[in-house]
Structures are given as structure tokens and as C-alpha cells.
Amino acid sequence: MDSVRDRARGALPRPCRVLVLLNPRSGKGKALQQFQRLVQPLLAEAEVSFKLMVTERPNHARELVRVEDLCLWDALVIMAGDGLIHEVVNGLMDRPDWETAIQKPLCSLPGGSGNGLAASLNHYAGYEQVTDEDLLTNCTQLLCRRLLAPMNLLSLHGASGIRLFSVLGLAWGLVADVDVESEKYRFLGEKRFTVGTVIRLVNLRTYRGQLAYLPVGSAISSKTPTAPVPLQGGPVDSHLVPLEEPVPSHWTVVPERDFVLVLALMHTHMGSTMFTAPMGQRAAGVMHLFYVHAGISRAMLLRLFLAMKDGKHMECDCPYLVYVPVVAFRLECKGGQGVFSVDGELLTTEAVQGQVQPDYLWMVSSGREPSPTQEPQQKPFHQKPL
User: Where are the transmembrane segments (predicted)?
Assistant: First the structure.
């Protein structure tokens, strides 16, 4: 009964048992050593027992959580980059009991290069922006505090029929190029993105496409019914229509043009030193849509990139950079140009659309209240400190 009461008030029980999934090759390849040296002692002191599963190949974590007996664990802890938590969430949504499986609390411990989700959770907790072992220590302390908070989930559909779920977001253009092309510099840790960005700025590309989106205000006020896309398991995406149909009339359509990048981001940080959405405060059912259209100079792009560390890029007064808070979007790339990156993982380039599922999963976080503007998707969340 104690565990039930703890969950009702938004906390993990004491003592608690967690399953740790760890990618030893993420980032600089030091995740296992850091777990043993930094994380283990803190968990022992906080009465958090664990079982460690080390992943051996891509999608191994997804395979493991598909069949794991989740009743054995109070939470799933993922220590790696954002790609591993992407695997875990999609593995949970693959299960026949996905509706209950996705409610198992998750914890992100940074062990990769970008660590955007962990950096966002660190920000929500009120900590200063830090990196590497300082960020790992902060996120471990959040786990030891045991507080939970509801988080949004991005439901994505591709033209080929694929459906997947994202915890951090989708990128196309410059950001996705850097994600994919900087893989060869993984030994540099988060600095790989700086190196990759400089290289890509020297050889700047643009991509032809069409973007449409449903702004937050239109989603709240619109009374136009939309037919949900066909289900393949998972929640209904009531704002979306099939990709072969035009978007509903109350959506905003950006005329077809050349883009430098498009980014749909769920949280404040795209990486541990990339404070991309300083306006974000974890509002239920909202994601941050950024796009940069062609014509911007390399010097301005570099200026935006450097200012992003402190979240000052929106103050650069750049007419080529557009930001809109949205609940859904559709992106059609013309001629199959460019690549998509979802939570840092490569996705086939095709027409894609997505919708936020508000407050759809639990994350170990600061335990602050969700936005009162929308009701939680699954059930009410009442959060109080232990």
C-alpha cells in the first residue's frame, strides 16, 4: 500500500528497486565506469537497489523492455544519451500492455554526447546549467529524491506507415546533419556537435520542403473536428489526418521554400550546452517549433549557435529564425532531401507528422506541478514532496 500512496502523490517509494539500462559505448565510452564510481554510492545511501543491464547492440534496450516483467521495478533508469531512452520508450509502446507499461516511471542519467533530456530535467529542477559528471551527479540526486513529474510524448507518423514516439524531438536539416555526421567524433563527447556544426557551416546546405503546424492557440479554440489517423497501437492522435490528405483548414501552412533547419523540440535543451527553448517550462501538450529558412548568412548562424549556450539566441533579432509553440506539425521534404533525426537517431527521410500527447509518461524530475491549462492525458497527477 505504501508504494500505491507514494505513486498517487508523485513519488517513488522508499526503499525502491530500479532496473538500470546502460550503454557502455555512448558518449566517450565511460558510462559504466561513471555509474560505478559516481552513481552507485549515491543510490546505496538513498536506499535505491538496482539491477544493471548493459546493452550490447542497437535496439537491445528496446528488445529488453518489450519482455521485461515491469512489476519487479519501481522505475526504469536509462544511463546513456537520448537515443537509449528513445529505445526504451518505443519498447514500452511495442508491448501488448503499452497503456500500463508507459506509466512505469523513467529516469534519465546522462552518459552520452548530447544529453538534451537530462539537461532539461536539470533545468526544471532549478540547477545551474552544467555538463559531464556535474550533470550526472545532479540527475542522480533527482533519482535519490524520488520525485516524479508528468512529461509530454511526441507521437510521430511517417508516409511509409511507420509510427514511433519521441521524448526529445525531431530535427531536419542542419541539426539532423550534425547529429548524424558527427558520429565519427563521439570520442569528443558533447564537443562533437561543435565540431560538426563548424564543418556543416562551411558547407552549408538548404533543403526544399513544406511545413504546416497547429499553433497552441488554434488548437484550444478550434471546434473543427478532425479524423484521427489510423491506429497501429498507441494513443489516438486526434489533431492529425492521414498524410495523403491536406492538413485541416485551421492549421498554419508555410509556403513551400528552402529551409536550413526545422526543429520540433519537446524540452528546453537540445544538448547539455544547447539551451534551445529558454521560453519552455514543461507546459502540458506543447512543443517548441523552430525553423530557419534559406538566406541566412553563415555568420548569423554561427552567432545563433554561440548564443544558444546561454539561451540568448532568440535575442539576436534574426528575421530568418521563426519560433512557434505548437501541438502538432507536418513536414514534407521535397525530393527526399536531407535526413531526419529523432532523439538523435536516424529516421528514413519521408513526409512526417506528429502530435504531442500531453503529460503521457512519468519522469524522475523536480516534482513541480504540470501546467494547469490542460488535463493530463491518462490520469490526474498530484505531486507533493515526500
Answer: none
Structural domain of 321? 156-359
Closest CA to 118 of 182, 74, 155, 168: 168
Evaluate whether residue 125 is within a structural domain: yes
Element (H, E) at 319: none
Give 257-299 pLDDT, tens digit per residue: 999 999 999 999 999 999 999 987 778 999 999 999 999 999 9
149 contacts 106 by C-beta, under 8 angstroms:
no
Asked if the structure places residue 22 within a domain, the reply is yes
Residues 80, 52 share a domain: yes
Domain boundary among 136, 152, 168: 152
Among 6, 74, 82, 343, the active-site one is 82
Same domain, 346 and 208: yes
CA dihedral 261, 266, 268, 273 (to 10 degrees): -60
Domains identified in the chain, total number: 2
CA distance 289 to 250: 17
Lowest mean pLDDT among 70-74, 110-114, 183-187: 183-187
The per-residue pLDDT for range 39-75, each reduced to its tens digit, is 999 999 999 999 999 999 999 999 999 999 999 999 9
In a domain, 129, yes or no: yes
- What is the reported pTM? 0.89
- DSSP-derived letter for residue 36 is I
pLDDT at 385 over 50: no
Q: What angle do CA 181, 53, 112 make, to 5 degrees?
A: 25
**Rounded CA Rg of the chain:** 20
pLDDT at residue 223 greater than cutoff 60: no
C-beta of residue 157 within 8 angstroms of C-beta of residue 236: no
Residue 367 lies in a domain: no
Mark whether 306 and 334 lie in a shared domain: yes
End-to-end CA distance of the chain: 15
Q: What is the CATH number of the domain that holds 33?
A: 3.40.50.10330
C-alpha cell at 269: 535543451
Given the C-alpha cell 523552430, which residue does it identify?
Answer: 290
Would residue 82 show up in a list of annotated catalytic residues for this protein? yes
The dihedrals phi and psi of 79, each to the nearest 5 degrees, come to -115, 105
Q: What is the pLDDT of residue 209?
A: 95
